[in-house]
Design brief:
GMP Synthetase, Chain A, domain 3, 4 domains, 20 helices
Length: 470
């Protein structure tokens, strides 16, 4: 009965969490709601326990989200009368950091990692507690590179190397889910491997502001500044959320100056270039731009396919057909996070239901992800792109000419129309000068066959697919 109750509570929490994600947005939900673990429920008192990993996060959620969580649970379960938010009783206490003679409890979630504390050797080390705040799975070895991200990856490796980097700070710019956070964690791990007693601070810009405001309220700004400037490597993620916060911007500016003067390393990440950060102070903008701004472009189809194949090694010996991998790589294009999430969901469903992974299963179970990613590609767009690629006039798509120089591009366009649009063979034929559906079928089968035998043809089609799906 206890197992059934736990499963039911978990199911209810999944629904509540998804609702809060829509209300609060991805950033707040990921930082404060996602870490919550559902504890036990006492039927006698109607009290449900919700656990968080740290005192700081528990207090923060209690102050800002307690009423909302309580209401959501009461709606989901009428027998819930009270929601109690606390630190998970099984968490491991970490040693405290000495800050200028005063002790400040480390809550773990702040992203600090590494060696001796500012006040002596009482701080925790990499060997003692591991790199706190760094995800152990996000390493350079697990990062798949391609044309879209190779510059950023190489720059990140230089930043983590033994040698003094040629540039600092490193600014990683890329859209959501393209690998910025992965590279930041990888830098932290690699730097600790070279400098086991190094002190690292990893946090989001929002978390930086929260800690700064708390220091102001508690009259501990000097301790905050001393701790922040004692780190060897500073990693600040989602910098776009610090815009417009004058006091936090000023403190970050002074911190950057102090760390750079001492030869320390700094890495920032945001979803836009420094110049596109609205409301940022010009002096801070100049500091962010003075090192290297490494752009991470959206993953192309080849990189998406490589990422999926690398991910599959975790599920060996489970077999995932090549057509499923190709389908996901072509369809889930918005970001890498959704791509991996789609693969994980598909494999989990197959394992839990005992079904084999197949293209039909992928199309059936990933409708939400696929609909969000699917960009409607029209036959007109395909014809225009193919004509530009082969340098022929657009009118040749509908003409009766049989010269090889126009027939083959026309067949390629028919093939792509069938592959990338939901149109039927007769509908495609009508868009190509009123041709019969059998002509379209012949073209599709011919190009499919040529791709297996002719490397040049396969390269042409791959290039066209990249253009149309980008």
């Amino acid at each position: 009965m206890e197992d059934i109750e736990a499963v039911n509570l978990a199911a209810d929490w999944s629904d509540i969490s998804q609702g809060l994600r829509k209300d609060l947005g991805h950033q707040l939900h990921s930082q404060w709601i996602k870490p919550i673990q559902v504890g036990g429920f006492c039927k006698d008192t109607g009290t449900l326990d919700l656990f968080l990993p740290t005192d700081f996060s528990a207090n923060w959620v209690q102050d800002r989200f307690a009423d909302r969580l309580s209401l959501a649970w009461k709606i989901a379960r009428s027998e819930v009368r009270n929601v109690r938010i606390a630190v998970h009783p099984g968490r491991r206490k970490l040693p405290e950091l000495q800050l200028g003679g005063r002790q400040a409890a480390n809550d773990g979630g702040g992203g600090m990692a590494g060696g001796a504390a500012a006040g002596g050797d009482t701080g925790y080390t990499h060997g003692l507690s591991g790199p706190v705040g760094l995800d152990p799975s996000l390493t350079f070895a697990a990062f798949v590179t391609g044309e879209a991200n190779v510059l950023a990856c190489n720059a990140a490796q230089r930043m983590a190397a033994n040698e003094t980097p040629q540039f600092s700070p490193l600014y990683l710019k890329g859209a959501t889910g393209q690998g910025k956070t992965h590279l930041m964690h990888a830098i932290g791990h690699a730097y600790l491997a070279h400098h086991p007693r190094a002190r690292i601070f990893y946090c989001s810009a929002e978390r930086f502001m929260v800690q700064f405001v708390q220091a102001l309220k508690s009259g501990q700004t000097m301790e905050f500044k001393a701790r922040l400037r004692s780190f060897d490597l500073l990693l600040v993620d989602d910098l776009q959320f610090i815009i417009g916060k004058a006091s936090a911007q000023e403190e970050l500016l002074y911190t950057i100056d102090a760390l750079l003067a001492e030869g320390k390393r700094l890495v920032f990440a945001a979803d836009r270039a420094p110049q596109a950060l609205d409301g940022v102070e010009p002096r801070l903008l100049s500091r962010l731009s003075m090192g290297l701004v490494a752009d991470i472009q959206p993953a192309d189809i080849e990189l998406r396919r490589s990422i999926l194949e690398a991910r599959l090694t975790r599920f060996a010996p489970l077999a995932v057909p090549a057509d499923v991998i190709d389908f996901l790589a072509r369809t889930v294009t918005r970001n890498v996070r959704e791509l991996i999430g789609g693969l994980n969901k598909l494999i989990a469903y197959a394992q839990l239901t005992g079904q084999e992974v197949s293209l039909a299963l992928a199309e059936d179970q990933l409708t939400d992800i696929l609909s969000a990613n699917r960009r409607r590609i029209t036959i007109d767009e395909i014809q225009r792109t193919v004509c530009q690629f082969y340098r022929i006039d657009r009118s040749e798509m509908s003409s009766k000419r049989r010269a090889r120089a126009v027939v083959r591009p026309r067949q390629v366009a028919m093939y792509l129309a069938k592959k990338l649009t939901p149109r039927s063979y007769p509908e495609i034929g009508r868009k190509f000068g009123g041709r019969d559906h059998s002509t379209v079928i012949h073209a599709v089968r011919l190009i499919e066959d040529l791709r297996t035998r002719d490397a040049d043809m396969d390269g042409d089609v791959r290039s066209l697919l990249r253009q149309l799906e980008s």
